[in-house]
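We treat protein structure as text, and this decision shapes the records that our systems exchange. Because each token names a local backbone shape, the row as a whole describes the fold. For reference, a complete record is included directly beneath this paragraph.
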Amino acid sequence: MIRFDSDYIEGAHPNIIEALAKSNFEQHIGYGCDEYCEQARNTIRRHCNDNSLGVQFLVGGTQANVTVIDALLHSYQGVISADSGHINVHETGAPEATGHKVIALPSEDGRLTAKQIAECYNDHWNDQSHEHTVQPGMVYLSCPAENGLLYSKAELTEISEFCHSHGLYLFVDGARLGYGLQSDACDFTLADLARLCDVFYIGGTKVGALFGEAVVFKGEEMHRSFRYAIKQHGGMLAKGRLLGIQFEELLKGGEDCLYFKLARHADILAAKIRNAFENKGIPMWIPSQTNMQFPILTKKQQQAIMQKYVPEFWCKYDDTHDVVRFCTSWATREEAVDELCKDIERLP
């Protein structure tokens, strides 16, 4: 079976395995205070055009989301998210387990608008009994969204301006950020995110690393206390150099770095899959231009495709059709995609 159900089912790029093995018998101070981690921090700062940024490394996305949310919010504050946001549907209530309610707003395409955020914020403060309800303290965006769609630079700017003029933190979940940045639809950069957000992270787990997320932040309070929050949430890896080595290997080399090359590879292959379905006359559920594609398939078409391939059931479309996700990754083989495209042509 050829799997297209996720972008983290392979291990890591060989360059990373080689770099980890090369450092295996070196002795370094622990907990992310080693030379490799500092080198990776400086590399990320260069990508962001801001040497004042804080950078800390965590192992996984849920760990990063929970640690950031809990570190920044007061106990009586919650985080605004699209109802399909990862923190609302795929993290077992992890933010709420730390005492921070996810304030979920309806979204047909997985994205939030500045208008929605403003309405939520104003509804809270215009309520005469607002102190009896959870106070919005942060806005959480997935970028790309859970369905592969991107925010534009103008949309991010509008959201950022509202957040920062009303005392809300803006936090971008970048678990698949590389695939977003390398999409033909993307008009923003890492430097734009660093300027517009209070905190975001560069996802490594899904874009070539063995594991790891690089949390990038600004603000005196985060600089002073974020490592305390990491430790309290069990996220301070003793052998921290394993994270620094991976991010330095992924991001060294500027715009020509391995991270961007791997992400671009996945986006190109996903576009081939989308084109194959569209050429067959099979409609797409949403116009994703990243590494996730969502054809609307009949039951018969699903049965045929699943004889050889493993996509992911996404949602029911109607009584006779379902939305199915095909996800490419940094390691997806072009020949596997070509084989899939030929089989799409043969679908009933």
